[in-house]
Amino acid sequence: MALIFMLLCFLISLGTKSEAAPTYLYHNCTNTTTFTPNSIYQTNLNHLLSVLSSNSSVEFYKATAGQDPSNSVHGLFLCRGDVNTTACRDCVTTATKEVIRRCPVEKQNIIWYDECQLRYSNRSFFGTVDVLPRIALINTANITEPDRFRRILNATVKAAAAEAANGGDKKYATKEAYVSGFQTLYSLVQCTPDLSTADCNRCLVLAIERLYKFSERLGARVLFPSCNVRYELYPFYYNRTSSPSPTMPKGSSKISTGTIVAIVVPIAATLLLFILGFCFLVRRAKQKSNAGKKENETDMPTKGIEFNQSTRKAMPLAVNEALNTKAKPFDA
């Protein structure tokens, strides 16, 4: 029994480690403004990224490096409202390194991951609504009853947006709604907490308008620098609430050791087989996903694009991964 327990713990840790890396989504480098290597601006940028990384134990942080407006750098990060402290820290740490690798001399940059986003600029953007650059990620499979689904989607994301805009310091909300049969709609909206209630609401309204362009799809998201919205037909965020553990009635009788062994051993063996299979599938999917990212990571227009979310190679975000689609311009 002890050997089985140790093996189970080891396999679970392997599965957890394989999921630890942040999921890269998109980045944008503004090529119109660049800085000279080893300049004061680069020194300030390096200091800013260090400050952001060292404060990644919180969900949101903003900072400015440099006193002179001509070479100061303003930046922030925002972690998704449901991720834990470890996932937030890992994502921000990765983002501070990757954004420099992808945009080595540009003054204005933004990078999105599934778990967080990070941006910086030579202009102060704190407390303002920015909708560019932007991107839409979509599932190319279609809904069977689009008219009815749009009504449900409209009511659900609007309710989530109202809750997030009035959410105080967090400005994050999730909502679920019954669709049909075993289908449930899951939605998530979030603003950067430095926005006012009115500005958060305005940003989400604009993002939701663009989300509706893909409302016949099984899933989609729209990413703005100041806010983002997403819906899927599967749970993609964490619910931090948990049910209380059942307790043994006071009058219950004791169970013999032999009975316990007879019950536990088959269960442990079944769990062992299940976790072995799960770890194998996770590692296999991870290898395919990483290989696909290397093939599809390219700079995209500032206005944004529709990016294929339905194929595992392009973006491992959807359940129904079967169809391909072409990237096309995202209307301004």
What descriptors fit this protein?
6 helices, 11 strands, disordered N terminus, Killer Toxin P4, Chain A, globular, 332 residues, 2 domains, alpha+beta, six-stranded mixed sheet, disordered C terminus, five-stranded antiparallel sheet
Tally of discrete structural domains: 2
Number of strands: 11
User: Can you name the CATH architecture of the largest domain?
Assistant: 2-Layer Sandwich
User: Strand order, biggest sheet?
Assistant: 7-8-10-9-6-11
The backbone outline, from C-alpha atoms, is globular
- In the predicted model, the low-confidence regions spanning at least 5 consecutive residues are 1-18, 241-262, 285-332
Indicate the topology:
Layout: H1 2-18, E1 24-29, H2 40-54, E2 60-65, E3 73-79, H3 85-102, E4 109-113, E5 116-121, E6 135-138, H4 146-165, E7 172-180, E8 183-191, H5 197-211, E9 220-223, E10 227-232, H6 257-296, E11 306-308
Parallel strand pairs: 6-11
Antiparallel strand pairs: 1-4, 2-3, 3-5, 4-5, 6-9, 7-8, 8-10, 9-10
